[in-house]
Specification:
Elements (H helix, E strand, L loop, with lengths): L1 E3 L2 H13 L4 E6 L5 H13 L2 E6 L19 H10 L4 E3 L3 H4 L18 H4 L3 H16 L3 E5 L3 H14 L4 E5 L21 H4 L2 H14 L5 H13 L4 E9 L15 E8 L2 E8 L4
Parallel strand pairs: 1-4, 2-3, 2-5, 3-4, 5-6
Antiparallel strand pairs: 7-8, 8-9
Helix pairs in contact: 6-7, 9-10
The structure holds adenosine monophosphate.
The site of adenosine monophosphate has 17 residues, from helix 2 and strand 5.
Length: 282
C-alpha cells in the first residue's frame, strides 16, 4: 500500500489505472477505522481492481462546538488495517490540500441538507457533500462505497451525484454492529463506563419498531411513539430525533411500507450517536 499526500499525484495514479482498463473503487473515511469501515474496503476490493481509501477529518462538516479537535486520529493502526485488506492507495491529504487558501466553493443539496442530522448539525451535510465532491474529482473513482449507518449522508450523496452528473456508482453497504447490536462508530471510544450500556437503547428502540411492524403495525405515528417510549426508559440518553422517512427524500411517511427508513439520533453524555433500520418487505 502506498500512502499519497498530494491530490495531483493521486489523480495521476487513478488516470493511469483507467488507461490500463482498471476499475477504481474509493472509500472515503475520517479514520479511526473499525470493522464498519473495513466492510466497505472489502466490498471495494471484491468489485474493483484498484482500491483507494481516504482518511481526512473534514473540518467543514463539524460545527463550532463539535469534536473536530478531539476526533480520534489513529493513523498507524489505520494504515496497518488497510494494508492487511490489500488497499492500493491510502490518500491522506492535509487540510490545505483539500481547502487551499481562499477556497470559497460549496456543494449543498438544498432540499436535503437541513433534514435529520442537518437540523441539530447545521452546515454538516454541506461540509460532507463539498468534501466528497472534491474527493471524487481527485480520485475519479468508478465506484464509491458508503455505509448505511449514515443513511441521511448517503441520501445527500446520491442526490448530489444525480444532480451534478458525477460518473460514479454509489454503493451503500449494510451497518456493521457489535455483538450486542451497538452500531460500530469511531465515536464509540468516547463512551465511558455505564454509557456503553446506555447506548444500546438506540438499537433497542429500532428493534421494537421492527417487531411491531412485523406484527402488522403500519402507522408511523404509533411506531414512532413506541420507539420514543423505549428511548425514554433510558433517561441518561437525550433523544435528538426518532423519525420514519423516505430514504431518498428524507420526508416523513405516514404509513410504513417496504424500504422506509427508521432513524434515530441521541446524545449519550456529550457523544452524539446515530442508528437506523430499513423496514423489509411485509
Ligand atoms: P466516517 O469515518 O465516520 O466518516 O465513516 C466513513 C464511512 O464508513 C461512511 O460511509 C460511514 O457510513 C461508514 N461507516 C461508519 N460506521 C459504519 C458501520 N458501523 N457500518 C457500516 N459502515 C459504516
Amino acid at each position: 500500500m502506498q500512502t499519497i499526500l498530494s491530490a495531483t499525484q493521486l489523480t495521476a495514479l487513478s488516470k493511469q489505472a483507467h488507461r490500463f482498463g482498471k476499475r477504481v473503487g474509493f472509500v472515503p473515511t475520517m479514520g479511526a477505522l473499525h470493522q464498519g469501515h473495513l466492510s466497505l474496503v472489502r466490498a471495494a476490493r471484491t468489485q474493483c481492481d484498484v482500491v483507494v481509501v481516504s482518511i481526512f477529518v473534514n473540518p467543514t462538516q463539524f460545527g463550532p462546538n463539535e469534536d473536530f479537535t478531539r476526533y480520534p486520529r489513529t493513523l498507524d493502526a489505520d494504515s496497518a488495517m488497510l494494508a492487511a485488506e490489500k488497499t492500493d492507495y491510502l490518500f491522506f491529504p492535509s487540510v490545505e490540500e483539500i481547502y487551499p487558501q481562499g477556497a470559497a466553493t460549496w456543494v449543498e443539496v438544498e432540499t436535503l441538507s437541513g433534514k435529520l442530522d442537518g437540523v441539530s448539525r447545521p452546515g454538516h451535510f454541506r461540509g460532507v457533500t463539498t468534501v466528497v465532491a472534491k474527493l471524487f474529482n481527485i480520485v475519479q473513482p468508478d465506484a464509491a462505497y458508503f455505509g448505511q449507518k449514515d443513511a441521511a449522508q448517503a441520501a445527500n450523496i446520491r442526490k448530489m451525484v444525480r444532480d451534478l452528473k458525477f460518473d460514479v456508482e454509489i454503493v451503500v453497504c449494510p451497518i456493521v454492529r457489535e455483538a450486542d447490536w451497538l452500531a460500530m462508530s469511531s465515536r464509540n471510544v468516547y463512551l465511558q463506563g455505564e454509557q456503553r450500556k446506555q447506548a444500546l437503547v438506540l438499537s433497542r428502540a429500532l428493534q421494537r419498531v421492527q417487531e411491531l411492524t412485523a406484527g402488522g403495525e403500519k402507522s408511523s405515528d404509533k411506531l414512532i411513539a413506541a420507539g420514543k417510549e423505549v428511548m425514554a426508559a433510558e433517561p441518561a440518553v437525550k433523544l435528538d430525533y426518532f423519525v420514519i422517512v423516505n430514504p431518498e427524500t428524507l420526508e416523513p411517511v405516514a404509513d410504513v411500507c417496504q424500504g422506509v427508513l427508521v432513524a434515530v439520533a441521541a446524545y449519550v453524555g456529550i457523544t452524539r450517536l446515530i442508528d437506523n433500520v430499513v423496514l423489509p418487505t411485509q
